[in-house]
Amino acid sequence: MSKEDNAKKGWRDIPIGGLITESGNAEKYHTGSWRIKRPLWSREKCIQCLFCWAYCPDLAIEVEDGLVIGVDYAHCKGCGICANQCPAQALEMISEDKSDVNDDKAEVDHEKKTE
Amino acid sequence: MSEQIALTGNEALALAMKQINPDVVAAYPITPQTEVVQLFSQFVADGVVDTEFVTVESEHSAMSATVGASAGGARAMTATSANGLALMWEIVYIAASTRLPIVMPVVNRALSGPINIHCDHSDAMGARDSGWLQLFGENAQAAYDNVIQALRIAEHRDVMLPVMVNMDGFIISHAVENIKPLADQDIRDFIGEYQPAYSLLDPDQTTTYGPLDLQDFYFEHKRQQVDGLEHALEVVLDIGREFYQLTGRDYGYFEKYRLDDAEIALIGLASTMGTAREAVNNLRKEGIKAGLINLRLFRPFPVQALREALQDIKVLGVMDRADTFSLNGGPLFGEIRNTLFDFGNKLKIVNYIYGLGGRDINLSDLEGIFRQLLEVKENGKVKQLVNYYGVRE
Q1: Measured between CB atoms, does B204 come within 8 Å of chain A?
Q2: The pLDDT of residue A102 is above 70
Q3: Before B114, cis peptide (omega within 30)?
Q4: A6 in reach of chain B (CB within 8 A)
Q5: Are the beta carbons of B99 and A23 separated by less than 8 Å?
Q6: Which residues of B touch A17 (CB under 8 A)?
Q7: CA distance A26 to chain B (A)
Q8: Residue A108 above 50 pLDDT?
Q9: pLDDT per residue over B133-148, tens digit each?
Q10: In a mutagenesis test of the B interface, which of A5, A19, A34 is the best target, namely the one with the most B β-carbons within 10 Å?
Q11: Could you read off the pLDDT of B88-101 as tens digits, one per residue?
Q12: What is the per-residue pLDDT for A107?
């Protein structure tokens, strides 16, 4: 068993049947590590149509006061739907190999990455 | 307590379901179970039950709808046979692993092919590793009583697992017997108002059913299922005792018949054991020390109790109405040998695979099998470990 698995709760201490008895706890499950490509968002190009926010299957487009402010990389799986549908080319998929962004860091300096 | 009435096995099961009055029944007809859900749907149409009856397009959907209803906090039931059970397959496992206390009568019939509608246990034995409890009953009364008890066992908080109530197709399902049903009120009191542990429809305790469960937790959930089955060993006895208080009918893991001083014995499941009881009586008249174990609980397997019950037996015949095609005996034989391997006694065991596809086994057959066991006892040798009894050479 891996160290990570060994640190988790045993069978006596979890709900039966794989049930999840807490609402909204998918947030605690960071799926960002699945990603092989990440969307880079450009504040300059963005026309704030919010299509990406509506399309994202993982609620990973971060919005504040009705405006897109970036991408939640802790949960973004890199599916690319946001970039594909963006009418303003404000989202670009780049390979994680070329990225020096730390996966564990939910917040990234978007300005720096679009350079 | 009601009077004695004459019913077929299927009518007895339908009556039990009517008296249970489940919230949801989703079912599809298949011989020899058809009558159970047909009669039950009439109860629904007549308004004598409150059940939502879901007519589905297949058994896969029947079990899926039953799982959905049970996850939604309903007391949910279905019933099937043979190929119907096979078509449910995927969802049968999901019912157990999701810990849904569904009760399902299975009217045992040979699995195709070649296509056959008559009794054997290949359907139930195929599902033996699905995580369900499996009860077998000798006759209509046992099937009726097992369904009532199964509900309590399944819903017990320490168990929370589905229960399959097996009854022999045609031999029991279509034959009329005298049975003593319980009064409606007695059943209502015995099973109580259903209080689901979780419900998809409970806004105060939101619950997700069936999420993805990978390397890090799947194994723990499987271990929990084992824990539920371990508890079931106690719960089956507790509920059996309670049922005895109510009816005077005694149910445990198995029935021991004239076993205490027996030297040779048979162990088996369901209707055949009724005939075997008569064979025991006939042999006893000749002074042959024969006995039998009529096994009721196949899953979980009552290992310790069987070890104790078999400790003084010299030769044991194991009756399997199904094969495993392992070339190493039938499913019950495998369990029994596994149970006794470390026991350190000198018991000799012989396996009889019999009755496949409804092939009759009668009193003289069973007496003949006992005489073969007697021969093994006398000369100390098992000539043939696995025997296909009643097949033409």
Answers
A1: no
A2: no
A3: yes
A4: no
A5: no
A6: 97-100, 160, 209, 221, 224
A7: 11
A8: no
A9: 999 999 999 999 999 9
A10: A19
A11: 999 999 999 999 99
A12: 46
Domains in chain A, CATH or no CATH each: 30-98 (3.30.70.20)
In chain A, residues with a C-beta closer than 8 Å to the C-beta of B215 are: 5
pLDDT at A101 exceeding the cut of 90: no
Mean pLDDT over B190-194 rounds to: 97
Nearest chain B CA: its distance from A47 CA (Å): 37
Across B8-37, average pLDDT: 98
From the candidate CATH numbers 1.10.486.10, 3.40.50.970, 3.40.50.300, 2.160.10.10, the one assigned to the domain spanning B5-247? 3.40.50.970
Q: Do A16 and B215 touch (CB under 8 A)?
A: no
Residue A74's identity, in one-letter code, is A
Picking from B97, B215, B224, the nearest residue to A11 by CB comes out as B224
Instruction: List CB contacts of B160: < 8 A, sequence separation 6 or more.
Output: A16, A17, B99, B100, B101, B154, B197, B228
Q: Which helix (H) or strand (E) holds B210?
A: none
Q: What is the ipTM of this complex?
A: 0.90
Is B375 a residue whose pLDDT tops 80?
A: yes
User: In this structure, what are the phi and psi dihedrals at residue B354, rounded to the nearest 5 degrees?
Assistant: -140, 165
CATH architecture of B254-389: 3-Layer(aba) Sandwich (3.40)
Q: B202 touching A, CB under 8 A?
A: no
A28 reaches B (C-beta below 8 A):
no
Q: Compute the Cα dihedral for B116, B145, B28, B39 and give only its sign.
A: positive
Residue B1 has pLDDT above 60, yes or no: no
Across B3-24, average pLDDT: 97
Q: Is any Cβ of chain A less than 8 angstroms from the Cβ of B206?
A: yes
How far, rounded to the nearest angstrom, does the alpha carbon of residue B6 sit from its chain's CA centroid? 22
